[in-house]
Specification:
This protein is an alpha+beta fold. It has two domains: 147 residues, no CATH class; 162 residues, Histidine kinase-like ATPase, C-terminal domain (Heat Shock Protein 90, 2-Layer Sandwich). It has eight helices and seven strands, in the order αααααβαββαββαββ. The two termini are 29 Å apart.
Length: 351
């Protein structure tokens, strides 16, 4: 429990008991003098102090040591004894203060001894006090358990994200190096240019990816550099169109490399074996939504093609669930004639 929560709980206890202690001063007859109200207040303090005693003995010891330990019988009998002591102390205080203040007891009218009625009323009050202490303690316990659950969930989420980030770097670099390796075989000049482009990406991949969020403009710059790198490898028969409507200074936080796997997937499956295809990358940040939509010609891998493990898209799904729970939508699939594949991620910014 944090210090702020402890201070808040202490303040609540002080305010509640302050109200209970001084509440009797508000209930008096119009012809009562201040001395009469004060003497009644002093005599009634005994019952209030006994209520506090029963409440805090339960709150601090009996409930956590017996009730929460599933020792319900011991808890029941301990409270019976405690209530009996409380009732005895209440009447003892009342009689003691009456003698000290030299107040003659009032004569009561009616059938039966009035002491039984007072005992029954006191018994009900003490039972209510015990019930109140159990309710307060149980609510605090549930609150602590919920806080512990949330903290465990937060730590688990951070551990999963860290693991995903550790997987993502090698995955991205492996795919990029495979692209450069393919370039070396037929165009060393392009391969050298690709290495230069790759060096621009490494800082973002190796350092920016360690952050949970990066400014959107930095992620867009990385995506543009990556697209330029991929365009070096493909032939002129591949049409790559980008329509990224993001302001150069847009600092909206976004998870790093959250969209790059979609672009990788488009270049992997959007180009035919003969080297033709179309890829369109559209991105915007309007009306509190970051939208990234990628459409490419659909050339699925052959059954005997073992390249790629699919880890990239799987990571995208997991990271979206962890970082944007209930704040994202991912639409993907093929068109009716299966000639185009689309993937659209919408991230709803927090208000």
């Amino acid at each position: 429990m944090t210090k702020d929560i402890k201070n808040r709980n202490l303040l609540i206890h002080i305010l509640c008991w302050g109200i209970v202690i001084f509440l009797p001063l508000l209930f008096y007859r119009p012809n009562d003098t201040w001395d009469m109200r004060w003497t009644h207040f002093v005599r009634s303090m005994g019952s209030t102090l006994c209520y506090m005693m029963v409440f805090y003995i339960n709150y601090l010891w009996l409930i956590p040591k017996l009730l929460f330990a599933h020792k319900r019988k011991m808890f029941f009998f301990a409270n019976l004894a405690l209530i009996a002591i409380g009732i005895a102390c209440t009447f003892g205080w009342w009689n003691l203060m009456s003698n000290i203040l030299d107040i003659a007891p009032r004569r009561r009218q009616g059938f039966g001894p009035p002491i039984l009625s007072l005992i029954f009323q006191s018994l009900l009050m003490f039972i209510l006090v015990v019930g109140l202490s159990v309710a307060v303690r149980m609510s605090q316990r549930w609150q602590h358990l919920e806080e512990a659950r949330k903290e465990a969930e937060r730590q688990r989420t951070e551990a999963e994200l860290s693991n995903l980030r550790n997987q993502l770097n090698p995955h991205f670099l492996l795919n990029t190096l495979n692209n450069i390796y393919a370039l070396i075989a037929f165009d060393q000049t392009k391969a050298q240019t690709a290495v230069e482009e790759l060096s621009k990406l490494l800082r973002h991949v190796l350092y920016g990816n360690q952050l949970e969020f990066v400014p959107l403009y930095k992620e867009v710059s990385f995506m543009n550099n990556y697209i330029e790198l991929m365009k070096i490898r493909v032939t002129q028969n591949v049409k790559v169109n980008t329509n990224i409507q993001i302001a150069p200074d847009d600092s909206t936080p976004v998870a790093p490399l959250i969209f790059i796997s979609l672009i990788e997937n488009a270049f992997k499956h959007g180009i035919s074996p003969s080297g033709a295809g179309e890829i369109a990358v559209n991105m915007s940040n309007t009306d509190g939504c970051i939208v990234c939509e990628i459409v490419n010609t659909n050339y699925p891998k052959r059954d005997n093609d073992k390249s790629g493990s699919g880890i990239g898209l799987e990571q995208v799904s997991k990271r979206l669930e962890l970082l944007y729970p209930d704040r994202h939508k991912w639409e993907k699939g093929t068109t009716d004639n299966d000639t185009k594949y689309y993937s659209k991620i919408t991230i709803y910014n927090e208000a």
